[in-house]
From TrEMBL:
Location of the SUF system FeS cluster assembly SufBD N-terminal domain: 55-197
GO biological process, one term: iron-sulfur cluster assembly
Homology family: Belongs to the iron-sulfur cluster assembly SufBD family.
Signal peptide per UniProt: none
Protein name: Iron-sulfur cluster assembly protein SufD
Pfam families reported in the protein's UniProt record: SUFBD_core, SufBD_N
Classification lineage: Bacteria, Pseudomonadati, Planctomycetota, Planctomycetia, Pirellulales
Organism: Thermogutta terrifontis
Length: 466
């Protein structure tokens, strides 16, 4: 039934693989401790089928996880993020997949005509598909864990964990030790994939997703990858503790969209890092709309002459959401360009944190870096912290940054109301206009429209203090 449902969406000309999430796996005893503990690691993670190099890495990562302290507000990285509402003991590192499989909601899937799709639940693949002609040309859209021992093992071994900084904090080490499932996308040299590749990651009620994403776009290849997160139960807690590593090889081009759309009960911790090689180009769009508490580190490394990255961020928070996004543009070599624009809006008691850094390494002359963060306050009780930063270690560079925070202009509301709009309609119009600059930079029409629609739906009537 599930296969029929997805086949009807995907259409003919695709190869579909389904996974019951139990095949080729050693199922843990549900009576044992399955939490993120030493017992859970012993019972669930170590018995999983995997190459020896992967098992040895997990053991090192777990030792680090045990040694590192929990983040607290005395640490600069976590000074603006309060973790008291998060309890790791509420979650387990493995849970059976529901049977029958549930319907997975998605804001983007109905709008996209795709070259390949993969759907995961609680971090584990439940279906995937790739157009047959692209499959024959070497395009891979698969579960990362399943691919560890397959024909791409050496390719994965060369790249996996080479960008991800797993020793940085407790959550990074937890992810490196306990990760399961995940997604592996490989675009071979010279292959141009015109239609997007979609990954929908869903969370069931009170479950955890510790999946890792590895994307390699090889030399002179082109692709668009869209990742969307979604919750099956809008009122249940969930945990995502994940990582993303992206390699854009010389002359390659990648458009990547990461649409974080969990419910407002989910805890989201992630490290995302991309390396852009010489003559390569990456457009990275991030939408941050869901999550009770989200702490994300996003980094792009420009590691070759004439490499370029454009980073777009759209953040919207309401109620008591806390979204903290730390960005970094690292110019490792000269003649590189990065351009970052983040825009955020918040209402109720929400709290947004954006901390950005442009770093130019020694010798990276003629680097060109730009970063900007603008925020729109829609209530008197919301709070925003925006901290731009520059670290320049080379001469002959051009780097600029800026950040703003302000309230809705009452004159704009009044002007729109004189044209027959209600106050709510006028507010939506103003907020949409505020985001338009960053939405215009998103080159995938369906993603741009989906982000705009969701933000408009969430904007409540604005009333200023005055």
């Amino acid at each position: 039934m599930w296969a029929d449902r997805w086949a009807s969406v995907i259409g003919v000309g695709y190869q579909i693989s389904l996974c019951n999430a139990t095949s080729a796996m050693v199922l843990p005893d549900l009576k044992q401790d399955l939490h993120f503990t030493a017992e859970g690691f012993q019972n669930v993670i170590l018995p999983r089928p995997q190459p020896e190099w992967s098992r040895e890495f997990r053991l090192r990562a777990f030792e680090t996880f045990q040694e590192l302290p929990w983040p607290n507000r005395s640490m600069e990285e976590w000074r603006r993020t309060e973790l008291r509402i998060f309890h790791l003991e509420n979650f387990v590192c493995w849970a059976p997949v529901p049977d029958p499989l549930p319907e997975v909601p998605s804001a983007l899937a109905p709008r996209l005509e795709t070259a390949g799709r993969i759907v995961s639940l609680n971090g584990r693949k439940i279906s995937s598909s790739v157009e047959e002609d692209l499959l024959e040309k070497g395009l891979v859209v698969e579960c990362l864990e399943d691919s560890l021992s397959g024909p791409h093992e050496e390719l994965i071994r060369q790249h996996l964990w080479s960008l991800f900084e797993w020793r940085t904090d407790k959550f990074s080490a937890l992810h490196a030790a306990f990760w399961t499932g995940g997604t592996f996308i490989y675009v071979p040299p010279g292959l141009k994939v015109e239609k997007p590749i979609l990954h929908v990651a869903a969370l069931a009620a009170n479950q955890a997703d510790v999946g890792h994403t590895l994307i390699v776009v090889d030399e002179e290849a082109e692709a668009t990858v869209v990742t969307e997160t979604t919750s099956l139960d809008p009122a249940a807690e969930g945990l995502f503790c994940g990582g993303i590593e992206i390699f854009v090889r010389p002359g390659a081009r990648l458009r990547y969209v990461n649409f974080q759309n969990w419910n407002q009960k989910t805890f989201h911790f992630a490290r995302q890092k991309a390396e852009v090689a010489e003559r390569a180009f990456m457009e990275w769009t991030l939408g941050a709309l869901g999550g009770r508490l989200a702490k994300v580190n996003q980094e792009v490394v420009l590691n070759g002459p004439e490499s370029e990255a454009i980073v777009n961020g759209v953040m919207f928070a309401e109620d008591r959401q806390h979204l903290a996004y730390h960005t970094r543009q690292d110019h490792r070599t000269g003649q590189t360009k990065s351009d970052l624009l983040y825009k955020g809006a918040l209402q109720d008691h929400a709290h947004l944190v954006w901390r950005g850094m442009i770093r130019v390494e020694p010798g990276a002359i003629r680097s060109d870096g730009y970063q900007r963060n603008d925020n729109l306050m829609l209530s008197d009780t919301a709070r925003v912290d925006c901290i731009p930063g520059l670290e320049i270690l080379a001469d002959d560079v051009r780097c600029t940054h800026g950040a703003t925070a302000g309230r809705v202009d009452e004159e704009e509301i009044f002007y729109a109301q004189t044209r027959g709009l209600t106050r709510r309609e006028a507010t939506r119009l103003v907020v949409t206009g505020f985001f338009q600059q960053v939405l215009d930079r998103i080159t995938i029409d369906s993603v741009r429209e989906a982000l705009g629609d969701i933000i408009q739906q969430r904007v409540r009537e604005y009333r200023s203090r005055d």
